[in-house]
Structures are given as C-alpha cells and as structure tokens.
Amino acid sequence: MRQLFSLLLLSLLSFVCSASSDYHEQLVLRPLPLSALLASFDFRSNITLSAFETHNFRFFPRSLGQILQYANTRELHLRFSLGRWDAESWGARPWDGAREGGTGVELWAWLEAETDDEADHKWLTLTNALSGLFCASLNFIDGTRTTRPVMSFQPEGDHPNSTENMHLLYGVLPHEVVCTENLTPFLKLLPCKGKVGIATLLDGHKLFDASWQSMAIDVRPICPDDGECVLQIELTIDMVLDIERSKRPRDNPIPRPLPSHELMCDTSKPYHADDTCFPADYSANQDWTLSQVFGRNMKGICPLTDPAVPPVCLQVPHSRRVFVSSGVVEKKNADGTSRCFEISPKADFEMIFPRPEKTDGEEGNAAQAEIALADVVKPETPLLYAERSFTGHGQERGGVQTILRNPSPDTEVEFIYMESLPWFMRIYTHTIEAHVGGESKSNGSLIEEIYYRPALDRARGTQLEMRMRIPPAATVFLTYDFEKSILRYTEYPPDANRGFDVAAAVITILNRGEERKAAYTLRTTSLLCSLPTPDFSMPYNVIIFTSTAIALAFGGMFNILVRRFVAADEGPEAGLGKKLSAKLSKVLERFRKKKTAVEEQK
Amino acid sequence: MTSSTIISEPLTANRDLNSNSNASLTPVPGSRKEPPPEKASDIRRRSFIILSFWLIVLFLGLPIWWKTTTIYRANLPLQEMLDWADGKACRPVFPLRIAIEANSLHEQEAHNLLRLTQHALDDLNDFSGHHLRLQLSPPSTEKKQDSSHDAALTIRLVPGESSTSTLDPYAPVLNITYPPNSIPSPTSSSSSLATYVASQLRSTFAEEQAIISYLLSANFIPSEHRPQGLAPEAADSLAKRTTRSLKYAPTYHLTFSLFTSGPLPSSWDIEAAIDEYMKPVLDLLSPIHNFTIDTQVQLYATPGVQNQVLSKEDLSSFINAAEWPLSPSIGGAPTINFVVFVGDQTIMAPPQAPEGSDVEAPTFQSFLIPQWGTVYLVSLPHDVPHVSVETLKQPLLTFTSHLLSLTGAPQSGSLPLRLSTLARIRSADLLLRASSTLGSLARLALALPSIAIPSSVADGVSKTMSHLRLACETLGGSEGLAHARIAEAEAERAFFEKSMVGQLYFPDEHKIAVYLPLLGPVAVPLVIGLLNEIKAWRKRRRERAEKGAQKKAE
C-alpha cells in the first residue's frame, strides 16, 4: 500500500511538474478492515514566486500569503489532528505519515532571519497571525512550547539560495481540541470554497465524528528544473470514518439496539441459540453509499482543477462491484487494486458500494473473515509500531515507556525519536535506556546518537532527539524517568485536576539510501500527566493560619512584657463569671436606688 | 504566695477604685490584699515598651506596608494635558502664503495691489484660524521654483481683456487675467481687481476653511475660533464626509478583489490596469501616504443580498463578511478594499439624492462603504474566462476617485491644490486627535486612582506634548504634518500601554479578608495597651495634682 501511495504521489508530482493548471484536487477512498473507510482529500495550488512577491494572488489564498510574507516564512507545515490511527488493524499510514500531526495542533516552519532572536520574533508573529486565521489557540505556542529540532525535520521544498539563514521552529499544542471552527477557515482557503467539487463532502459533523482525522496545510517552494519557481500550498484532510457510525441518520444520532432478527451472529459458536448471539466479525463488508457516509452528495467538480487528475479514486480490488451515477466513467488502474472516476463538471456524483456476494451464509467465521479480507485491499504493514505510556505512580516521580516494534523479519529500522516535553517534566537523562524485549540488560548499541536540550523552568521545554536502530523482528523498550515539578499557584489551568497534556513523540524513519529524507513518519499518542495539584483555597488558609500563629505569639509576648504580676489575692476579681455578676449587681443596685429615689419623691 | 496563683492584672488598673467598689459590693473582708506599690522604674519601663512597639509600627511597619502595596503612578502633567484637549494650549492657525506673480506690473503697482488685496481678504475673512498671507514673488524666473515651493498657491497675474480666473490642473497655480484699466492707482483705497482676486482666493479656499473649522468645532470649542457662518446643511455634509474618510495612517493597504458568483472569470489583468489608471494618483499622494497593493481572485462568492436590483438598504448587507475573505491585512496599516463583483446585479437609482445615509449611491454600478472601500458591480457574459484591462478601466477610475474621498481629500479644486489641502486637513486632524487622546488619558488617570501608570506612559506624554507644540508652531507646512503624525502615534501608544490596560482588580472584601486575620489580633493588644497606658498616665497626673493641692492646702 505504501508503494501504491508513493506511486500515486509520484504520479501526482509528475502531474504537477507538467501541469499547465495551477490547481488540482483529488479524493482517494480506501475501505479499511473492521468497517472503516479512509478518505484522503488533497487540494493543491501553485503560485509563481514573482506573483507571490507582487501580491497578486489567484489560487493561493491571500490571507495566508500575507502572513507568510509578513513573517518571512519560507516553508510552513500546520496540522490539526484528532483521534488515533489504529496501526494494528489499519496498517501503514496514508502519505507515509507525512501529512499528519499528533493530537491537537502542530506547527513547524522554516523562517528566514538573521539571528535567533529575530527568528523568535517572527515566529511569534506567525503563530499569532495563524491563530487568528484558523480560530485556534496557536498564540499559546510560546517559548515553553517551541523547540528547534535538529535531526527530525528536513525541508520538503527546494530552497536554492537561502538555506543558511533559515531557522526551523517547531511548536505543538497537544491540548487543543480541533473542531468545526478550524474547518471553516480551512475551506475558505480553497479556490472553489466548499461550493463544488470534492470539498462539498466535507461536513464538520462527519469529519469531527471520525475515528481519526488529520487536517494538514503545507506550503513549500518548488523549483522545477525547467521553468519558474512556484510556491505550492497543499491542503489535505485524511479521515477514517467508522461506517456504521457515519451511517446513523443525522436527526437520530443515538445508537439503539437492533431488533434481534437483524443481529449478525456467529452461528458456528457452540452456544449459539435463539437467545444468545456472538457478533460476527465481518463488518468490513458493510455496504455504503457516498451520501450515507458523508451526509451529502458530491456536487460536480471544481472547474479550475487540472483535467488530467481524476477527482475521485477508490482503492478496492477489481473484483468488487461499484455502482456510480450516470455520466461517470470508471477507469480501472493497472495495479489491480484501484480505480478512478471521471466526473462531468455539472453532475452530482453518487457512488454505491454494495455488500459483496456471499458464497454461503452458513459458512464459518474464519471463511467469512477471509472473504472480508479479500474484499478490501490488504493493509500494508507499517515499518514500525510505536506506543508510549506512563509508568510509575505517585505525584512526585514517573516514568515514560515507549514500546517500538519492528515487524519486518529481515531489515533493521533506523529512525529518529523526538520528544518535546513540557518544562515541568524534568527528565533524568541517566535513566534513559533502551533494551530489546526479552533481554533484561540495556543494550547500548540501540541508541546511536542523542541530542538533548534541557528545560529551563518557565522558559523552555525539554527537547530530546535520539537516533536509534532496531534490529529485525525485535521489540525495543525505551524508558526514562522524570520528576514532576510543582507549579506556581497562577500557573495551573482552571481544570488542573484533569492533567497536563504531553505532546506526541515524533518518530521519523530514515530512508536508507538517500540521506536526510524521511521514509515514513509516525507519532505516538499524546499523554496525560497528572501533576500534584494544590487546594486552590490555600492562600486564604495560609493567610489565616499564619496570622493566627503570629497573633498568638505577639499577643502572648506583648502581654508578658507590659503586664504586672501580682499574687492572686492581691489582684482584682478574676474570672468572667464573677466579673459579670459584679457588674450585674452594680446595675441592679443602681436600678434599686433609682426606684427608691422615685418612691421617695412620691 | 504559695496558696495564691499568679494572675495577670490589667495594666495599671485603677486598683484603688476597683478594690474600693469591690469592697463595698462584695463584703468579703480580708480576702483581698493590696499589691505592693509599683516601682517607678517599672512604670517607666512599661511606658517605654509600649512606646517602642508603637514606634516600630508607625515608623517601620507602615512605611514597609505602604512601599510594598502602593501602585506606581508616574507624574503626568494632568492640567497641561487637559488644556491641550480643551484647545487652550494651542490655537491652530494655518498661515498660508500666497505668492503673487505679476511680471507685467511695476513693482510699485504690484505692492499697492498686494496691499489692497490683503486688505480685502482680511475684511472678508471671518475665521481667524485660517490666514491667507499674500506676498510678492520676485519677478526673476529662476527663483520661482523656490518661492512656489513653500507657498500654498501662486497667483499668476496676466493682462487680458476681462477678469477671468482658472486653476492650473497640474500645479498649484491660479491664473488670473485682468483688463489693463483695473490696475489700482497708488493712491486709491479700493480696486476692483483687488476685490476680484480676494474673492477668487476665498472661493478657492472656502472648502478647506469649512473643513478645518468643522474639525475644530467638532473637537474643541473655543468660541473665538468658531466661524460664524457655518450653515447646518454644510456642517451635515462635512460630517458625512469626515465619517466617510479613514483614520489617518502613513501607510494604507489597498486590496483589489475580483469576486465572481460562479466559476468564471478566474483571472484578470489587474496589475496592468492599476499601473495605467491608478498609479499616477498614488504617486501624487505619496508625500502624504504610502500604499501597498495586493490583489486576489475569489470564485463562488455569494453576496449577502440576492436581489436582482439592489436598493439602498440592500447595499449595507451586500458584502458577505462571513464568507468573503476580506480580512484586513496584517501589520499596522489599515486596509482599503476595492471589490469588483462580477454578477448581473445592478443598483437601483435612488428616488432623490439620499440624505444622511451612510452608503452613497450616486451611480448604478458602484457604491462606497465609509471607511472600508468600494464595490463595483460588473456584468459580464457567463463564459468569459478573463477580465481584460479595458473592462477594468471604469472600475479603476471609480476606485481612484473614491480613494481620494476615502483619504479625506476635498472635492473641489485642482488635484495639486486638493492634495496640499489634504495635508493641511490631515495635520489639523492629527493634532486634534492627539490632543483629545491626551485629554482622555488625563481623565482616565484622574478617574481611576488605583490604575498603575508606568514611566513609559509619562515619557510618551512628554514626547507627545513636545511634538504637539512643534506641530502647532509649524501648522500648514510639511513639518507640521510630520510632527502631528509623531504626536498622534506617541499619544496612542501612551494611551494603549499594555500594563495599563490590564488593571489589577482587588475588591475591598478581598483586602479585608487578607488584612483582618493578621492585623486584628495584633492591633487589639497594641491599641488596648496604649489606651490603658494613657489612662494610667492621666490618673497619675491627677493624683500628683491632688497631692500638690493637698500640700498647698496644708
């Protein structure tokens, strides 16, 4: 599948190089096992550098172009992601992981600046401007969330003359929740808006209900060997839809139990009976139509798009039958697992993906599973599996464990593992160790190179980059310990007890032949680190407690200093009761006197 | 002492009285004993202790508390700032120098004419803020360049058959022809030529005078500056024009956008069109404003109003702000939008000239949105993929004239004269705006006693005032504009100082909650100790006085 995607990418690249049109868009649909559907939207437009410099924008969005010019940005990558890519069942990531980010928002850019300070200043401008453009909290990418990766990222575009003054800055907001307000400005950047073409399928309700989704914006200069340099903006949206979930009607989204006769049961189980049911696992063969899954029809195609690029492609074996609306031409590609559709500009496009013909309903589960696998393109094994989790307990220390598994039986994998940790996670570098699963001792040869930039409290986070090599068919445990620091009272967010998000680790697998180019990128999930949280009424408690202590000490001392000590029988009457009774009798006596005086007057 | 516990006795309790009354109330004879009289050194020591506690509180505690909780407020010259805002500090006077070029006249004649014309002008002028000073320009031609450089207008007197006047379209020159017999004799006290020249000058500068006097009256109202003859209608139209024009900025971003309701046309020759139709005016404006230009094409843009014929009410909602990417440009400068909308909509002609409306609707194709820009509706056949320079000619000419009114240039007069007037209007405007910002800052500082005023604000204020003073002295020239510009920028910076905007809010309940637990228990023994000591001291004095009186009596 990866080859297929890169083939596709290559063919697209060749299109771009030869294309006369400055814009194209394409949607690739790929059913995945377990009733999932991957939809990759790709929109790409070019502007010549001369037009860019004279501010004449046509397909390139003016709002973004101005920001890039103002912040001297040469290359920009922005990601909005949500959910988790299930590599175990879905296989390798689309675009070889190059168009996705960790959960939340990720931004990295190459800025042209003379000094580091100038670059920081421009970075601030860039994040603030993008924050306004995309309605995201990108302005919270401050010094503590910004790093300057050394090994992990390489420019994608061609920078023929300005490589020396380019500064790479990388910022990540793992806590940011990506939602519809980020999609609307995204659609505004497209030349055809969301009015025609494949972008009409982008519905916020479905997109953000997906199991996994990633919106990416990439701006890079491309200089073909012949012809003028262009600045290319590529907008991609990848999402994995749970078909069953997406098929729920919009006005009735609550899942309800099916009536018993509609349940799909595994009849091969010995306990199968009228009142028991083991769910059958062949939901990959769900039937669906385009409008059911996306909630709307596709309205024509964008007239600006390059006619050489088919607008919709579907990756299923040629044996599957697919029905399309009239006026659409189906073209099967030579590789046997993909087909594309030519759509007339004005017509609506609808596709029906029927359930494949079952040979026999009474067959066993294993056979059905086989059929299920034959009906979707078999997912390709990724180069590396990675998962990361916290270890340890308590509020003081913790540990991070990353399990990296090389599934290939014969090739070793070389990659760069990058962590950008918040400053309040102080890692103990001496505890960094990697050992192959099964062996108890740490293996020094796994980590080849470490780049470590320690955190400064409240100023910058930890940056840890490691070049590692994993032998074939091995599982490596990478662990390190850290200490949780205590924040200041005002530094806690309102929902302090929820925990603090720790950004995903970025794993860049290096291409073995070519140096410096990434072959595959993957990101772990983000982590939720719980820090010791104070009681927030603490300041008042402290004030009252210390005040009481001071008052007690002061009062006692002052009294001892200024009072005279006499024997008990020498002093006045002590005790509250006696004093009170004395006063009372005084008052009574006065009252009596008055009375007698009045009586005497009478 | 073994049987008795030690109790503390309130400091210098007036034990005699107490024990007496106790004795009288509770007759338990023998159970109470008199304590031995206190030593004088003990009494003195106690007084010293209390005194030293109070000294520490007053001379160490209070200053520390004051120092640590006080808010830094830089000294602002508040009265001076308010004077500026009220117009007491500066009397805006625009001395305009008018050069008269009369090469055909004798010097004596020319001087006489000058004197008479000046006299006539002074008679006509009722607005003291706007002075027209005539001077004779030397007849030699090589010096003409210099003199006309700093003069606002040059009058070129040429003998002719009758009295006519024309404005030169390319230079600030008023050409006046006069019949030969109208030259005043050296002795005459009035002349028809002088009156004619004066009235021509006056009508040329009438609009500028009206605008400046309007600005002055709208901002501050010293009555002696107030022109008498500003009619309400004229004031209305001036108000309309002032609200329409943008705030002054040294740089404006011009954004040209092509919006189409469908997929076509998707490209236009805007660069060539701007170069041809708009560049000359932009170059002329360059001493006052800089411009940056960007262009964009937007397809599938649905306007906010779908009607075929747009009425006046529709125009305000025509711009679909939610969907059209017309976000202002990044950077400090304001953006002026020029939108060419390709569609088949037209604007309904207003039944009468609209009065007091924000949206001007003079034509069928375009409308101006105050302080925002212009929309021009173009209807094209549906299959045209490209908009040519010829199609863009009319829209761009409209945009150019609207640009002038958006920048606030007056409507009458030749272009060079309008631009020099614009510079004067702008400097007056900036001066007034900076003054009123100063006034607002002063009022803010007075109204919020708990707001912090950092020293940068004080710096900004002093800079503003020095530049305002300079601007006030050099009004009417290019220097005045530069000073006014700096003053305005500094005033805005001082007013919008970041640390002042985020004012700390400590409610009184909060203060009580913080201070009471600490100060209450500490203050009570201190205060009671002091009161008791004073009481005891007074008692001792009285006793001493009584003793003295007894001795005397004895």
TrEMBL record, chain A:
The lineage of its organism: Eukaryota, Fungi, Dikarya, Ascomycota, Pezizomycotina. InterPro entries: PIG-T (IPR007245). GO terms for biological process: attachment of GPI anchor to protein. The chain crosses the membrane at residues 538-562. GO terms for cellular component: GPI-anchor transamidase complex. Residues 1-19 form the signal peptide. It comes from the Eukaryota. Pfam families: Gpi16. This is GPI transamidase component PIG-T. PANTHER family: GPI TRANSAMIDASE COMPONENT PIG-T, GPI TRANSAMIDASE COMPONENT PIG-T-RELATED. Keywords: Membrane, Signal, Transmembrane, Transmembrane helix.
Automatic annotation (TrEMBL), chain B:
One of its GO terms (cellular component) is GPI-anchor transamidase complex. Residues 15-25 have a biased composition (Polar residues). It is found in: Endoplasmic reticulum membrane. Pfam families: PIG-S. Keywords: Endoplasmic reticulum, Glycoprotein, GPI-anchor biosynthesis, Membrane, Transmembrane, Transmembrane helix. Residues 1-39 are annotated as: Disordered. InterPro entries: PtdIno-glycan_biosynth_class_S. It is a multi-pass membrane protein. Pathway: Glycolipid biosynthesis; glycosylphosphatidylinositol-anchor biosynthesis. GO terms for biological process: attachment of GPI anchor to protein; GPI anchor biosynthetic process. The chain crosses the membrane at residues 48-66, 512-532. Belongs to the PIGS family. This is Phosphatidylinositol-glycan biosynthesis class S protein.
